[in-house]
Design goal:
alpha/beta; about 450 residues
Length: about 450
């Protein structure tokens, strides 16, 4: 089913506002994010500051509510009919026409807004309603806290996470952290389980487990009543350019996969869950406290190889909130986006790209943080130079001052931490973005 259309009032407003614009869309990301406002007395830029956890509510598949528009003249919204994502839309058309035998994948890289999967979960569910549920996609192993809207994840025992912190912007060890930018090593006897939720994929469930084994390391994996021990000499799949091994397993659509560490601290980099029938898959790859420089600290060749293995049709970069509270000159981020896109295109040279700007945020002195607007402007310019689409979450919220308005709504759509939205706020933005993407797709 298509995403719910906007109200007639908002539609009339959009027609006027969109008639003179150039291309793009807007969105954000949530997390139990650990973003560090300047002069806050918080730890250094790489070390997240504690924020109260968000209640684990899973957003409905589609929002009935249009995006909030400021009562005073808001910034003009981007024109979705000019959003140049031709390859992505062509792939969606193949899916909808039952002419495609492989999933359409979106790789979504971002900060804490992305990590909690409220925003991306809403987008995933809405697009899957229209184009088919291809499965949950990428799932982290052994991290805590962690949530995925389409998988029940349980972790027991001790797990060591690298890099430390994961948002680190300088290379740690060999820099090989897979697609998701993290690797975890469990202590002997530590366990984890992953159970896809009903209706999130069609046909059989295909799991692909990503790992590497030091000498003497082993683990047991159980799925659909079958159990096997994996050691260094076990038959596994490999890909060119990456030292990360793959183990492919299949089960029923809601079968639980279980891992038990046996010896030697195996390294896990995540797993993917997809259905045997093609559909839309959105890989949520968010890291609390991340900047666009965070993935630049990962070894480039193995990361490009992992991107190639996923073969995304669309890659999304959703950073900017943490940069808004740094002291660096905003212009420095232009080169970082260029470098990150080059690395992604090493693995997926034909993938469309979309930059998603930060949502509004409150400064420590009150009012909107001015650097959010500066970063929004820089990212819009960088996207145009790089041939990417751009989505301004700031505009979708209603411009500067929208965070404070959302904070005082009942129920609130922004959180008192001055940085994050509530699940309802992220759902609003996600639903708004899907409406714009669908409109662009239908007018392609």
């Amino acid at each position: 089913m298509p995403a719910e259309p906007l109200s007639e009032h908002v539609e009339r407003w959009l027609v006027v506002a969109l008639s003179s614009l150039v291309a793009l869309v807007s969105l954000t990301c949530l997390g139990r994010g650990e973003l560090v406002p300047k002069n806050s007395g918080a730890p250094s830029a790489d070390v997240p500051a504690p924020v109260a956890p968000v209640a684990p509510q899973v957003p409905p598949a589609a929002s009935q509510e249009p995006p909030v528009v400021a009562s005073a003249a808001p910034a003009a919204l981007p024109d979705p009919t000019r959003l140049e994502l031709k390859r992505f839309y062509a792939a969606l058309a193949e899916l909808e026409g039952h002419k495609r035998k492989v999933p359409v994948r979106i790789l979504w890289l971002g900060d804490s807004h992305t990590a909690a999967d409220y925003l991306t979960g809403t987008i995933r569910a809405n697009l899957q309603q229209r184009f088919g549920a291809g499965g949950p996609g990428f799932v982290r192993i052994g991290t805590n806290p962690y949530r995925h809207t389409q998988v029940t994840v349980v972790r027991e025992g001790e797990w060591r996470v690298e890099p430390n912190p994961p948002s680190k912007r300088s290379q740690q060890d060999d820099g090989v952290f897979g697609l998701g930018g993290m690797r975890v090593s469990p202590a002997d006897g530590a366990r984890a389980s992953f159970e896809p939720k009903k209706g999130t994929l069609h046909g059989a469930a295909h799991f692909q487990l990503w790992f590497s084994l030091p000498e003497g390391a082993s683990f047991r994996v159980e799925l659909a009543g079958a159990s096997q021990v994996v050691r260094k000499d076990s038959p596994v799949e490999t890909i060119a350019g990456s030292p990360i091994a793959r183990l492919n397993l299949s089960g029923g659509p809601t079968d639980k996969l279980e891992l038990v560490a046996l010896a030697g601290a195996p390294r896990f980099y995540g797993l993917t869950v997809e259905g045997s029938e093609p559909g839309l898959v959105l890989d949520t790859v968010g890291i609390d406290g991340a900047r666009v420089a965070t993935p630049l600290a990962w070894a480039s060749a193995p990361f490009a190889a992992e991107v190639a293995a996923r073969a995304p049709e669309l890659v999304v970069f959703a950073f900017g909130t943490n940069e808004a509270f740094d002291a660096d000159k905003v212009e420095k981020y232009r080169a970082e986006y260029r470098t990150l896109l080059e690395r992604v295109h090493q693995g997926a040279p034909n993938a469309d790209c979309l930059l998603v700007g930060p949502p509004d945020a409150l400064s420590t002195s009150g009012g909107s943080e001015p650097r959010v607007t500066e970063i929004d402007t820089l990212q819009r310019s960088a996207a145009a130079e790089l041939g990417c689409g751009y989505v301004s979450q700031l505009e979708l919220m209603g411009g500067a001052g929208s965070f404070e308005r959302w904070l005082h709504e009942k129920p609130a759509r922004a959180r008192p931490d001055r940085l994050h939205l509530t699940p309802k706020g992220y759902e609003t933005l996600g639903s708004s973005l899907v409406s714009l993407l669908i409109k662009a797709y239908e007018r392609r």
